[in-house]
Structures are given as C-alpha cells and as structure tokens.
C-alpha cells in the first residue's frame, strides 16, 4: 500500500470514528427529547429490541416493550408536559466498529407552577451497539446521586478511558 493510500485509509478510519461518536451523542440526546414529549415509539426506537434499562439497581425495563410501557405509565405521564431530560456531556469510548460505551450525568428538571426544580441527578453508563446501520442503546444503567453504588459507574468507565495513568 502506498503512503498516500495508507494515509487515506487512516483518515477514513478517523472520520468514521468521529461520525460514530456524533451519532452516539445524537442517539442519547434523542432519548431525552422523545421521552419529554411522551412519544413511546420514538423513545423505544433509540434502544435495541433486546435492551435492558436498569434504574437504581433494578432491571426495570426489558426490551423496547418495557421502554414503551415506562413512557406510557402513570409515573412518567404525571411529569408531562413539564419535564426536561438533559443528558451529557457524554464521554464515548468506541470498542471496535459496532460497540461503544458512553458515560454521562443526566438530569431531569420538572416545572412546578412557575418554578423549575431538579427532580433527579444521575450517573449513567450506556452500552451501545451499531445495528441496522445506526447506533442503539443495548444496556443503560442509571443510578441517582446519593446511591452508594453510583460512583461505581464512573469508576468503571474512567479505568477504561485511562487504563494506566502515571503514578505520582
């Protein structure tokens, strides 16, 4: 392979990695927008058919069916239309061409009268898979701040991001 071809191949790999990371951010953000308008089908669309959505150590939602049920459920419906799910910024680690992990904070704000309050602040870990040409959430673990296991989510991710830091 010529030097030019090698450089072009490397550049194509880098561009693909950037496109993948942008698409992962878009997928995670789309969840927040869809769930805030109560659109169960579009919320479920960002997840794999066999997804597992773990909230505070309970495997609350299995599959897209479980995600749809959450959006349509009384708990979520009671927040509408006065809630805002904000996720990110996320730190993304690509693991090959079709797998990635994203770690972020998430916040849910809720309007009560004229006031807005922070309803929930959580640590999140998204296991992503590229299926059918798009990035989808295979597994999401979200744990609220204050839970003794919440830091474990970030500890795991930071070790993956910085596996061997210099000791000082």
What can you tell me about this protein's structure?
The protein is an alpha+beta fold. The protein has one domain: Nuclear Transport Factor 2, Chain: A, CATH 3.10.450. The protein contains five helices and six strands. Strands 2-1-6-5-4-3 form a six-stranded mixed sheet, sandwiched between helices. It is globular.
Helicity level, as a percent range?
25-40%
SSE order = HHEEHHEEEEH
Q: At the first level of CATH, what is the class?
A: Alpha Beta
How many distinct folded domains? 1
* Secondary structure tally, helices: 5
Write the topology of this structure.
Blueprint: H1 3-36, H2 40-45, E1 47-55, E2 58-62, H3 63-72, H4 74-77, E3 83-94, E4 99-112, E5 115-131, E6 134-144, H5 150-161
Parallel strand pairs: 1-6
Antiparallel strand pairs: 1-2, 3-4, 4-5, 5-6
Summarize the structure.
By secondary structure, the chain is α+β, with helices and mostly antiparallel strands. It has helices at 3-36, 40-45, 63-72, 74-77, 150-161, and strands at residues 47-55, 58-62, 83-94, 99-112, 115-131, 134-144.
């Amino acid at each position: 392979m010529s030097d030019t071809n090698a450089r072009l191949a490397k550049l194509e790999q880098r561009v693909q990695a950037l496109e993948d990371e942008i698409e992962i951010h878009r997928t995670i953000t789309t969840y927040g927008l869809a769930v805030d308008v109560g659109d169960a089908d579009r919320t479920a669309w960002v997840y794999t058919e066999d997804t597992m959505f773990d909230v505070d150590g309970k495997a609350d939602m299995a599959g897209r069916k479980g995600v749809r049920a959450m959006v349509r459920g009384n708990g979520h419906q009671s927040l509408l239309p006065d809630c805002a799910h904000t996720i990110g910024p996320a730190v993304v680690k690509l693991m090959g061409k079709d797998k990635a992990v994203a770690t972020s904070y998430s916040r849910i704000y809720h309007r009560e009268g004229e006031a807005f309050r922070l309803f929930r602040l959580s640590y999140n870990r998204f296991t992503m898979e590229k299926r059918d040409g798009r990035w989808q959430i295979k597994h999401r673990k979200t744990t609220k701040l204050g839970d003794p296991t919440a830091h474990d989510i970030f500890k795991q991710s930071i070790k993956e991001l910085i596996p061997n830091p210099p000791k000082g």
